[in-house]
Amino acid sequence: MKKFKRILLKLSGESLQGEQGYGIDVNRLNDYARQIKEVVDMGVQVGIVIGGGNIFRGLTGAGKGFDRVRGDQMGMLATVINSLGLCSALQAIGQKTTVLTAIRMEPIGDFYTKWKAIEAMERGEVVIMSGGTGNPYFTTDTGSSLRGIEIEADVMLKGTRVDGVYTADPEKDPTATKFHDITYDEIYNRGLKVMDLTATTMCKMNNLPIYVFNMDIVGNLRRVMEGEDIGTLVHN
Predict the structure, then answer these.
(1) Is this prediction's pTM over 0.90?
(2) Per-residue pLDDT tens over the stretch 191-216
């Protein structure tokens, strides 16, 4: 039994680095592709947004003297590179996949519209939505919130390298404790950084729940679909 019919899967660019510390780790990419195909084969409709931090992060570039708008545009292009990599890995194992871009760049990808995305998912294709929102000053967290709301996803699955939301960063604070579930208001009040403020507010206002889990453990995406309690649910 699958828990959700349609999901928006948010993947971080940093996770694609794997053990390399930069760029795209082919082994990590292939692990992700197999996990995604596994849930598509369960009958789940899958939309994906990937960050670009393994290649270039606009905000970091701005801190080093880049013009913020140019830096964000470079970051958007980094998400397209990651999207093409994941598309290739999925197609190599027989999963039909479409890449949509927020900025026109045919033939690299088709220009994004809500209806193109939904029609492709209903045909059983994985839809990778790249280029963020197409605008500077918005993160891929905000882009994933926007796309999740637009495609009418049941949930946003935020695949990270930690297994949920904690009272503090568990990689820095060994006393941090994990939440089974938490409300958006609690996130605001505690100052927790699940996603940036704009993205979190969009999900709250449009009642899109977020499920945070560790995507780097092979099989976890399927476990989430089967209803196993392996992460943290963020909700109203």
Answers:
(1) yes
(2) 998 899 999 999 999 999 999 999 99
Task: State the Cα–Cα distance between residues 99 and 126, nearest whole angstrom.
Answer: 9
Please tell me what DSSP assigns to residue 168.
Answer: S
Query: In whole angstroms, what is the distance from residue 126 CA to residue 219 CA?
Result: 18
Q: Which residues pair with 46 in a beta bridge?
A: 7
DSSP states of 179-216: -SEEEHHHHHHHT--SS-HHHHHHHHHTT--EEEEETT
6-235 topology per CATH = Carbamate kinase (3.40.1160)
Is residue 87 a contact partner of residue 97, using CB atoms and an 8 Å limit? Answer: yes
- Please, are residues 179 and 231 in contact by the beta-carbon 8 Å criterion? no
- Residues ≥6 apart with Cβ < 8 Å to 224: 3, 157, 211, 213, 230, 231
